[in-house]
Amino acid sequence: MKVELKVNGKAVSADVPPNTLLVQFIREHLRLTGTHVGCDTAQCGACTVIANGRSIKACNTLVAQMAGADITTIEGVAAADGTLHPVQAAFKECHGLQCGYCTPGMVMSTIDLLKHHPTATEGEIRSLLEGNLCRCTGYQNIVAAVQTAQKALAA
């Protein structure tokens, strides 16, 4: 089936089998490998992207469901000149990553979180990020990164 959508501001189209997952389309067809495959069950959040302004897990979404959608992956977050998005900069500044496997999904979820909950408390941040798992950091630096980004975006 033919699918047409916008990814990181660019129109893309392809003929794909109807059972193609969005994460497969992004990684294999578009060669945007920043979106990771972690659990294949929508539990870990490594595959999180933003679709039409909301974060979704691309490992359990068919690309056919996204026909006409506007998708942003981690590759589409930084400015064209390479300047990091405030969330990316905060994760770097606060050491909100270790191995980096969960980081793209955490960044995408944080962008969505701060867009829809710009004044979230620490407890709310922890609750709103429950769908993203990290096996390395213990989350304290991730929460600090979200709070730092929160302040940067409010300024």
TrEMBL record:
Pfam families per UniProt: Fer2, Fer2_2
Annotated ranges, domain 2Fe-2S ferredoxin-type: 1-77
Keyword list, A-Z: 2Fe-2S, Iron, Iron-sulfur, Metal-binding, Oxidoreductase
Keyword Iron-sulfur: yes
Key word Hydrolase present: no
UniProt superkingdom: Bacteria
Entry-linked InterPro entries: 2Fe-2S-bd, 2Fe-2S-bd_dom_sf, 2Fe-2S_ferredoxin-like_sf, 2Fe-2S_ferredoxin-type, 2Fe2S_fd_BS, Beta-grasp_dom_sf, Diverse_Oxidoreductases
The protein's name: (2Fe-2S)-binding protein
Organism: Ottowia pentelensis
